[in-house]
Hints:
With 258 residues, the protein is α/β, with parallel strands linked by helices. It contains ten helices and seven strands. It has helices spanning 2-13, 17-35, 41-60, 77-80, 84-88, 106-114, 134-146, 155-170, 229-245, 250-256, and strands at residues 72-73, 92-96, 123-129, 177-183, 189-194, 202-207, 220-224.
Amino acid sequence: MTWWRRLVGDLKARNHLDTYALTMVVFTFAILSLVSDALDDDLRWAVLLSGVGLLIYRLTLAPAATPPADLLHDRSRFEDNPLTPLLRDARDVRVFAPSAVNFLSPQMCELLRNTVLARRNGSVRVVVLDSAETSAIGIAARQLDDSLEFPIQRLPQSLASTVERMNLIAGWRSEGTFAYRVFPYNPGFSLVLVDPDTPHGRLIVEFHGFHNPSTSSRMHLELVAGRDERWYRYWIQQFDRLWEAAVVPEILTRREKP
């Protein structure tokens, strides 16, 4: 049903409305012509020629040379459009990052506590790298730290700090639920999903790349429900599979035992 998802996405984004409207009129007149002879010939020709004219006009339009302005960014995007408004009414937040140290800052943790985790059905799930996988951590550190021109933090220490913070958050008494898991290697991207299964969902994918001036200069995609349907669903599945493959840390496993 790819055509149906494309139609719904176009209508939500108000794309090609003229084409859809005229197509509906043409099909309506075609059906009426089959069942009735009451339609005037001049009217039939007018509708037909309108359809041909719109088709020719569409063929003259050059394809977009660049992606939409609200699709590609780096982290400076969050200076003008912070995550705070997105989280204000959010109920489902999912994160994957090697250390998640930048996302789970003290300010962000406080924001999550007062928004998503303050709601009875609120949920925050985080996946980070497994610090016990020393070889994988070493390779990820080479990619994420050593390839930066202006590094300001180191992966092993950042990961340890985040894990300690998440263990504290897991012990909070909150209406919502917080859970985290660890993954054995770095797949080369980070994810932030906000209410991904709703019509107003938003999804951010950051690619780590090979060499960057700084962490904040990495490219990321910002996808929204309806407009970017194929890849939007793809990245939701990426997180879901990461979550399924990741494991619950031993400290949380011990807490769950009676």
